[in-house]
Design brief:
The chain is of the alpha/beta class. The protein is built from 9 helices and 8 strands.
């Protein structure tokens, strides 16, 4: 009989101060490190190759939800969350990435809503984007209060704080950013078009940031149109717009607005979808 003795160090900090900590569900030895307090499987068998990991991460960036990835690839959500954390740890810090500020640079400000665990736990991502370079120069994750806006202002580099800024009419921006260089504008002005486009790209890539209000409004408009207008009239409307979905939806909205104005009873439900 041949016996071998194998010595293991901590996979995290390479310390020798580790101890056995039971076994996992596959019977493999688990460890606990007294130096860095790390614990886990000592010699975990690799279930996924690097190519498979990259494929899963690319799928996550194409608007597939975490539950969808679990159903498609069989990867558990905790494992996917850990992969995302590991991927994020390899990225450079944000202050190291922006280009040097120019005297005529303009910052566009906006916030993006998401949630943690359940939709009642809303979190807002505050964003400051340079119009010239299309780079995010600062961000902050918190609530939608003025305190979070102050945190965004504190994270903006000193060189960029001298730039002109544009935002929507959320009062926190007006109270935090200097009034001499800041202006609140509407979306129709185009002054915040680049940061709005960045937010839309993020919503297209990550399902967690998808806004449901636009979809709900389209559904309500369509339902109103079908309920009020005769079915033959609606079908004729669809036939006239065949092959052009955007024009169809614009026509639906216009026709629905006309119907809402013509019928006082329907004005009672307009707060449901007017944002």
């Amino acid at each position: 009989m041949i016996q071998t003795i194998q010595t293991h160090d901590c996979p995290k900090c390479e310390s020798e101060q580790i101890a056995r900590n039971g076994t996992d569900y596959k019977g493999e030895i688990k460890y606990y490190c007294h130096e860095c307090q790390a614990y886990g499987t000592l010699s975990a068998s690799a279930q996924y190759t690097e190519e498979q990991k990259e494929m899963v991460l690319r799928a996550y960036q194409e608007r597939v939800s975490m539950r969808g990835i679990t159903r498609i690839f069989g990867v558990s959500r905790p494992t996917l969350a850990q992969w995302l954390k590991d991927k994020g740890s390899t990225l450079p810090d944000l202050p190291q990435t922006p280009h040097d500020a120019q005297p005529d640079d303009v910052l566009e400000l906006d916030e993006l809503c998401s949630f943690v665990l359940k939709k009642r736990n809303k979190w807002w991502i505050w964003i400051a984007l340079c119009r010239r370079t299309r780079q995010i120069v600062a961000y902050f994750i918190g609530d939608r209060s003025e305190k979070s806006c102050w945190q965004l202002w504190a994270r903006i580099a000193k060189a960029y704080k001298r730039c002109r800024t544009y935002s929507d009419f959320w009062r926190a921006y007006q109270n935090v950013f200097p009034s001499s260089r800041h202006k609140s504008v509407g979306k129709a002005s185009g002054k915040t078009a680049h940061v709005e486009r960045w937010n839309l790209t993020l919503r297209q890539r990550l399902g967690r940031f998808v806004r449901e209000t636009v979809l709900v409004r389209m559904m309500v408009y369509t339902i109103i149109l079908i309920e009020i207008v005769e079915i033959d009239t609606f079908c004729e409307l669809v036939r006239r717009q065949t092959g052009h979905r955007q024009a169809l939806m614009r026509t639906v909205i216009v026709e629905s607005d006309k119907l809402l104005k013509a019928s006082p009873k329907l004005m009672l439900i307009t707060p449901l979808f007017v944002h």
